[in-house]
């Protein structure tokens, strides 16, 4: 099975020769990072085995967030943090998607458009949650994750939000729970989301660059009850640091075509698709985010700047249920430690050597 790194090793030079003059700097950085990952270019980490005394050198990863090799550890760290922050009670996953005719504009104006997507969708949730017809709480809490790809690597920007089922009312100081099977009306969310995104484009005088038909279409918003928070968090965790396609989906490369697996929506059957190597790299790189752009954002009482602690929110939620609910176990298996390939004992970290540093002499 050929990995993405090997595809880049084989075809990246040709891709750069063909498109280098118009390639964004972020794309070139990702190509270089993937090619350098787990090589001398990224430095080394030294581990010692306390049982047999042998030292083991491991090449460091590049750490680039678009490199498929580097994300497993980050995913686990994020999941463990979110499990410590989970709240009791029912939760929802709400997804905001834009019309297909808007995608080309977004792809050409990523930093501007992605920020507008976050702002329009988060304000939609806050506005409707405060409405007494629905929840009547002026301080909801939720976090969102931006995705930009579909199953076939096509460009498909959307935001997933994990939302506790209710909101805090600062007027009466109590938790206002939503129904277990209903958070907010998707039709109303769709209309407000579209209007707020339009307002953001007006502020920067970009409406003329967008097909007017976009504002006549329904914008798709999906709201799904997911039960306890750990279920939705575990579902989203791989996507938080996931890249557009992972190595395990690559089947083969034959005659300049990359064959990979995918599943259609609501289907469990694997299908196979092939793309020319140049098109495969183009589709992969179109999901590279602008430098420094935050693809995970927290709002309301889940925001790091919130003046109300999660312990307080959790207690208010429990009070609203009569203290008849409890947090589930996280179910996270402990990480497998690195072991010595000679004797099987656990390795102990000694030091890391960056590319511009000199490795120390071996002990003894």
Structural account:
By secondary structure, the protein is α+β, with helices and mostly antiparallel strands. 32% of the residues lie in helices and 23% in strands. It has 9 helices and 13 strands. It has helices at residues 4-19, 25-36, 72-85, 103-108, 110-129, 186-203, 229-240, 277-285, 310-320; strands spanning 44-49, 55-59, 90-97, 141-149, 155-164, 166-169, 174-177, 221-228, 250-254, 257-263, 270-276, 296-300, 347-353. A 5-stranded antiparallel beta sheet has the order 8-3-5-4-12, sandwiched between helices. A hairpin with a 5-residue loop joins strand 4 (141-149) and strand 5 (155-164). Helix 1 (4-19) packs antiparallel against helix 2, helix 3 (72-85) runs antiparallel to helix 7 and helix 5 crosses helix 6 (186-203). The model has no long low-confidence stretch (mean pLDDT 89).
How would you concisely characterize the structure shown here?
With 364 residues, this protein is α+β, with helices and mostly antiparallel strands. The chain has helices at residues 4-19, 25-36, 72-85, 103-108, 110-129, 186-203, 229-240, 277-285, 310-320, and strands at 44-49, 55-59, 90-97, 141-149, 155-164, 166-169, 174-177, 221-228, 250-254, 257-263, 270-276, 296-300, 347-353.
SSE layout:
Blueprint: H1 4-19, H2 25-36, E1 44-49, E2 55-59, H3 72-85, E3 90-97, H4 103-108, H5 110-129, E4 141-149, E5 155-164, E6 166-169, E7 174-177, H6 186-203, E8 221-228, H7 229-240, E9 250-254, E10 257-263, E11 270-276, H8 277-285, E12 296-300, H9 310-320, E13 347-353
Helix pairs in contact: 1-2, 3-7, 5-6
């Amino acid at each position: 099975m050929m990995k993405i790194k090997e595809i880049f090793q084989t075809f990246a030079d040709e891709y750069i020769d063909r498109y280098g003059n118009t390639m964004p700097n972020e794309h070139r950085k990702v190509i270089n990072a993937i090619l350098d990952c787990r090589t001398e270019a990224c430095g080394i980490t030294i581990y010692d085995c306390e049982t047999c005394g042998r030292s083991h050198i491991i090449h460091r990863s590049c750490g680039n967030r678009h490199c498929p090799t580097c994300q497993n550890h980050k995913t686990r760290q994020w999941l463990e943090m979110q499990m410590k922050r989970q709240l009791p009670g029912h939760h929802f996953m709400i997804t905001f998607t834009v019309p297909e005719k808007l995608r080309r504009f977004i792809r050409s104006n990523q930093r501007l458009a992605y920020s507008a997507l976050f702002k329009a969708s988060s304000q939609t949730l806050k506005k409707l949650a405060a409405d007494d017809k629905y929840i009547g709480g002026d301080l909801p809490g939720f976090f969102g994750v931006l995705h930009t790809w579909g199953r076939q690597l096509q460009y498909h920007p959307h935001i997933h939000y994990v939302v506790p089922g209710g909101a805090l009312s600062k007027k009466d100081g109590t938790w206002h729970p939503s129904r277990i099977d209903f958070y907010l009306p998707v039709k109303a969310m769709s209309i407000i989301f579209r209007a707020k995104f339009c307002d953001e484009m007006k502020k920067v005088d970009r409406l003329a660059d967008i097909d007017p038909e976009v504002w006549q279409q329904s914008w798709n918003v999906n709201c799904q009850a997911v039960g306890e928070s750990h279920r939705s968090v575990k579902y989203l965790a791989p996507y938080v640091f996931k890249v557009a396609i992972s190595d395990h989906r690559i089947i083969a490369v034959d005659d300049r075509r990359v064959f990979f697996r995918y599943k259609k929506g609501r289907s469990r059957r694997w299908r196979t698709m092939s793309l020319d190597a140049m098109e495969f790299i183009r589709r992969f790189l179109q999901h590279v985010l602008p430098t420094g752009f935050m693809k995970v954002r927290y709002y309301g009482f889940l925001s790091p700047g919130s003046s109300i602690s999660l312990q307080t929110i959790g207690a208010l939620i429990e009070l609203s249920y009569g203290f008849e609910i409890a947090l589930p176990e996280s179910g996270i298996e402990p990480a497998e430690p690195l072991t010595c390939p000679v004797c099987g004992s656990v390795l102990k970290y000694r030091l890391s050597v960056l590319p511009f540093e000199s490795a120390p002499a071996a002990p003894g």
